[in-house]
Structures are given as structure tokens and as C-alpha cells.
Amino acid sequence: MKITEVKIFPINEERLKAYVSITIDDSFVVRDLKIIQGPNGLFVAMPSKKRKDGQFRDVAHPLNQDTRDEIEDLIFDAFEKEVKAMGDSLTSMRRSRESENYESPEQHD
């Protein structure tokens, strides 16, 4: 099995940091994985469904730790690249504003 694509959809919430979709062998997609900020750092939550008793149960998940580690590593690498790209795009936006002699509202006091 090979993860052939990882798509990151950043979310700006306190605990939820991103939704993730992965493609396996260019032929099977798993959506609604989540990157969550927990008390011990970021972790990947598998797609889940709420049961009638109120508990959540994974609808898809790795069957062994090696596969989980591989999926998490790929997701965290893609998440890091996405966050850096977002930072780069914000930096370039700030630079273009500065080059246009952008004045903030505070400068008009």
C-alpha cells in the first residue's frame, strides 16, 4: 500500500487544525481525517461516526502501528509544508503592501 496523495485543508480553530484527505495507490480516497491539537501536541484522528450511544467510532483506521506511523508522517509533512506556504504567502502579501506605501488606520490619528 502506498499513500499517493495527501491534501490538507487548514482550519483556524482552537483544537482542530486541519481536515485531511489521503489517496491510496491512486485508487482509493479516505476523507475527513483530522489534525487535532491535544494536550501532548498534534495528532491525527481517523474519520469517525457518532453512534447512537454518543460515542465515536472510527470508520476507517490502520490495522497496525507501522501503517499508522507512515500515514501520520506523511500527513504531518504535508501539514508543515502547507503551514509554511501559508506563511510565505502572507509574508509576500505584507511585502506587496509595504511596496505600495500601505498606511494603516493607526497612522491617521
Please characterize this protein's 3D structure:
The chain contains 1 helix and 6 strands. The protein has one helix spanning 65-99, and strands at 3-10, 16-24, 28-38, 41-45, 48-50, 56-58. The strands form 2 sheets. It has a 4-stranded antiparallel β-sheet with strand order 1-2-3-4, covered by helices on one side. The longest helix has 35 residues, at 65-99. The N and C termini lie far apart (61 Å).
Please outline the helices and strands.
Blueprint: E1 3-10, E2 16-24, E3 28-38, E4 41-45, E5 48-50, E6 56-58, H1 65-99
Antiparallel strand pairs: 1-2, 2-3, 3-4, 5-6
Radius of gyration (Å): 19 Å
User: What is the top-level CATH class?
Assistant: Alpha Beta
C-alpha geometry: globular
What is the architecture at the second tier of CATH? Answer: 2-Layer Sandwich
Query: How much of the residues is beta strand, in percent?
Result: 35-45%
CATH fold-level label? Arylsulfatase, C-terminal domain
pLDDT average, as an integer?
A: 86
What structural class do helix, strand and pairing data support?
alpha+beta
Report the CATH superfamily: Stage V sporulation protein G
Q: What is the count of structural domains?
A: 1
**Uncertain segments of ≥5 residues (pLDDT<50)?**
none
The H-and-E topology, N to C, reads as EEEEEEH
Straight-line distance between termini: 61 Å
| Count of DSSP strands | 6
Spatial ordering of strands, largest sheet: 1-2-3-4
Oligomer: single chain
Tell me the major beta sheet.
4 strands, antiparallel
